């Protein structure tokens, strides 16, 4: 017997469903409509509920849907139409949410960008998607304006994020005090040319004659390095992103809709993780979304004192820094309900103190930009398991296969590449049919991650296929070695890579010391050999001041490898 869900056929066995928390459905209801329905339904059912909070300024759902309709009309008057790509280059702010949904309201396609990218990085992405409309933070407007003639953005809309703050704060930022002047300079910049965001949202609301997008229209192009290291735009449809929001709702049935439910947006919403958990899931819950332009532990602690988060999407370094800062300042993070961690392994040594201090739950999840992004999460119950990425969310089908022969499944407890299917899995890379074909096999998406599944359906990530180290004929997972190194009292952080050697590759580690003046590489190697089999111990260790990390704190092993190769060459 099989069950069908939006065109995907799921064949038992699915051992993971028996490990679901109580109240979580095994499958997903059919998907229809568009992402606009998430906000429209919340506004219709909870018009007076707080939707956004930005430095204390609150926007209700009725005000939010009105601003979206006005912005959509303003964009249409400036030439944005169905199917156009519209670049959004903004930090977390109320204007970001309004712009996101206004673009979608017209049936156009949002292309999210990191506003801290270098001009070269931004230019490469604009070359790929070719957007002629851009809604950008005033601080980066000049970067876009300086693009070469073949990348001219015809319609540049500049956003002053301070205009989304309370009126009193806007007035204060104009005072001639050095501290306030410096803060204003960090937040905004005068823009010559283009159109102001205020001019766009001052339009009349969009008429009902403009149809909403279709379920299978592309909604967002999300840039990812994918499995090859080359940045590519993952085309995510309304169906993909709606499905992921619905899967999140199904996974945490204890989170109620409407006023009283609070989400913290400390992760950047231009990242797939922050986009789904905050821009779509939170809006579908008619929740209050508290916006932080960047992660600042003091700001989060202040917000927690006033109104703790019901749901706090984070990464392990954020949880660690928040706990440390709370203890330093003698403040409490009690009342924080559900912490959802992703992007990197969550250590049990972090989970226990977090849950003791908050009285809540901290669970690890897993996903990829190509999958909208959530694929697996630990049960939000006593069934959760530290060290595991959890279980496939409802409506998701998975296989573990031989990476060299991806049509052959491996057994329970055996490592293999994770293949997935489901309504949240993308339709392909934007404008790259050949690269799209390479990551699918018989309709299954190849994640490029090596995992193991136990007999109760819990999954553990072994490592990235591209980052496995082959030394003396043996495979070494960098993550496993890094976790062993971090247990050493003299090491604060570590990144493990493979460098060329006569035997193929040798295991090499870059380590950040924990303030200890004494460091003996041989002693560290011996320490690792007590935890792991000897061939996994690093042959060489390099001391570094810091490790290169992504915008959400994930160590960039490729950059570490390049730095160590350059060190060897010199």
UniProtKB/TrEMBL annotation:
Domain named AMP-dependent synthetase/ligase: residues: 41-430
Ranges for domain AMP-binding enzyme C-terminal: 480-554
Enzyme class: ligase
Coiled-coil region(s): none
EC number of this enzyme: 6.2.1.3
Pfam short name (any one): AMP-binding
The keyword Ligase appears for this protein: yes
MF terms in GO: long-chain fatty acid-CoA ligase activity
Cross-referenced SUPFAM superfamilies: Acetyl-CoA synthetase-like
Keywords, alphabetical: Ligase
Keyword Ligase: yes
Protein's recorded name: Long-chain acyl-CoA synthetase
Organism: Microbacterium amylolyticum
């Amino acid at each position: 017997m099989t069950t069908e869900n939006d065109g995907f056929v799921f064949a038992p066995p699915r051992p993971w469903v028996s490990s679901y928390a109580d109240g979580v459905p095994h499958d997903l209801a059919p998907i229809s409509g568009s992402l606009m329905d998430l906000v429209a339904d919340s506004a219709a059912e909870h018009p007076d509920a707080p939707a956004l909070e930005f430095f204390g300024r609150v926007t209700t759902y009725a005000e939010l849907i009105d601003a979206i309709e006005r912005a959509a009309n303003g964009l249409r008057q400036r030439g944005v139409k169905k199917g156009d790509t519209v670049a959004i280059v903004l930090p977390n702010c109320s204007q970001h949410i309004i712009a996101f949904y206004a673009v979608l309201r017209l049936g156009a396609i949002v292309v999210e960008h990191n506003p801290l990218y270098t001009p070269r990085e931004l230019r490469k992405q604009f070359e790929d998607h070719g957007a002629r409309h851009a809604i950008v933070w005033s601080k980066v407007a000049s970067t876009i304006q300086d693009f070469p003639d073949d990348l001219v953005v015809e319609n540049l809309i500049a956003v002053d994020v301070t205009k989304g703050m309370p009126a009193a704060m806007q007035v204060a930022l104009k005072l001639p005090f050095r501290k306030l002047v410096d803060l204003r300079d960090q937040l905004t910049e005068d823009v010559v040319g283009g159109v102001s965001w205020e001019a766009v949202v001052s339009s009349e609301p969009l008429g009902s004659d403009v149809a909403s997008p279709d379920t299978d229209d592309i909604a967002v192009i999300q840039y990812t390095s994918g499995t090859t290291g080359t940045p590519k735009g993952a085309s995510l449809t309304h169906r993909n992103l709606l499905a992921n929001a619905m899967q999140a709702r199904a996974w945490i049935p204890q989170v109620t809709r409407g006023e009283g439910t609070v989400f913290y947006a400390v992760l950047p919403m231009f990242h797939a993780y922050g986009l789904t958990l905050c821009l779509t899931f939170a809006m579908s819950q008619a929740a209050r979304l508290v916006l932080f332009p960047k992660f600042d532990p003091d700001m989060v602690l202040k917000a927690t004192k006033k109104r703790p988060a019901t749901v706090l999407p984070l990464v392990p370094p954020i949880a660690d820094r928040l706990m440390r800062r709370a203890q330093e300042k003698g403040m409490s993070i009690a009342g924080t309900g559900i912490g959802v961690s992703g992007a990197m392994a969550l250590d049990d040594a972090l989970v226990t103190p977090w849950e003791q201090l908050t009285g809540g739950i901290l669970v690890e999840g897993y996903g990829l930009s190509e999958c909208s992004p959530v694929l697996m999460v630990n049960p939000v119950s006593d069934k959760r398991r530290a060290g595991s990425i959890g279980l496939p969310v409802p409506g998701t089908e998975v296989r573990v296969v031989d990476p060299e022969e991806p049509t052959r499944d491996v057994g329970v407890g055996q490592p293999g590449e994770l293949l997935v299917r489901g309504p949240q899995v993308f339709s392909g890379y934007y404008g790259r049919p050949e690269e799209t074909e390479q990551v699918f096999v018989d309709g299954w998406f190849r994640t490029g991650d090596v995992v193991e599944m136990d007999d109760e359906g819990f999954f553990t990530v072994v490592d990235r296929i591209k980052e496995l180290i082959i030394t003396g004929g043996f495979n070494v997972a960098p993550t496993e070695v890094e976790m062993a190194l971090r247990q050493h009292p003299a090491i604060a952080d570590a990144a493990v890579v493979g460098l060329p050697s006569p035997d193929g590759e040798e295991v090499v580690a870059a380590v950040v010391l924990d303030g200890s003046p004494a460091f003996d590489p041989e002693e560290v190697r011996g320490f690792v050999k007590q935890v792991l089999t000897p061939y996994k111990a690093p042959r060489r260790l390099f001391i570094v001041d810091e490790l290169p990390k992504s915008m959400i704190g994930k160590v960039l092993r490729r950059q570490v490898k390049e730095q160590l190769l350059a060190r060897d060459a010199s």
